[in-house]
Amino acid sequence: MFRNMVKSDGYAIGFIFNRKKRSNAPELIENNNLTLDDFNFEAVKNTYRPAFLDPVRKSVFCASLGLDNKNHQIRQCTMKEYFHMTGSTRYLKKLQQMKANRSIDTLESSIPSPKTTKADQYSNYITYLLQHIDQFFFPFYNFDTAKDRFHLYQGRQQAADNMVNIIINGSSKYNKIKRKNVQKNRKNKKEKDKNKNKKTISKGKKKEKKMKAFRV
What we know:
alpha+beta
């Protein structure tokens, strides 16, 4: 049901809807009392592909696929890979460059710490922010960053799907065939871009010749 509410940050737009609450204990869950005795080891081995997940400190997850103790595959997604998939590493690099061009980084590095129990030190923190908020911070952190925030939201959604794909299908990281296809697509894309650039250059030269002939 539509709540007659629309929100926007200048780039993305959202429509607010209400939905009926789901029951806490559906009948399908109540009537299914499955235990380990209901599964046969051979049937599981031949029908399914079990995956055992372990949250590691430096990785989002580390998965062990299969039931064989010797021949099994280890798949993982590191924190570096996750932030690359979300696009936050590229955005942070772009943000730091923008801060350096506008001298925002020097101002932010000089902000007094708000983590204190002394009233005078916290007052210095508030005073510093109020002195520079209209001159630097408001013009920089405005609605122009809405596009980047939307792309970061898309990146987080895609990163979750990519991590599931790594566990189930292996993705191009663990599948050589898919990796070759990705390389072929990149080469084809580069060739198409080169051909487009050549066509645009040739069109531009033809236009120049026509304009010269027209002037003469």
